[in-house]
Amino acid sequence: MKINGNNRFPYSNQIYQKNSKNIIDKKQKPEILESKDRIELSKIGQEVKRYLDKIEDIDRREQEKITYIKQAIQNKTYQVSSKEIAESMLDKINQQKGRLEE
Predict the structure, then answer these.
(1) Residue 76 CA to chain centroid, in angstroms?
(2) Is the pLDDT of residue 26 over 70?
(3) Strand, coil or helix: what is 81?
(4) In this structure, what DSSP letter does residue 11 have?
(5) Which pTM was predicted?
């Protein structure tokens, strides 16, 4: 066995090349898989998302309405319709009567 030779371990170079090739292959595989991965919502998931979007829209509109009324009250420009109040009161009374009769 030569001590001062360039090729002290004849198989070490082959093993190194083989291992470095495997490391490169492992690094490339996730990139290939990432391009093929997809996430799709099921039909139920899509319906749930649609309903959540509707709820957010309703909440946003209600918040805008509340803000408008608060500003009108602060500015003393909020006007209440006596007719709307009377109709609302009658509706509530009729609802309560309907519950009592059942």
Answers:
(1) 41
(2) no
(3) coil
(4) T
(5) 0.40
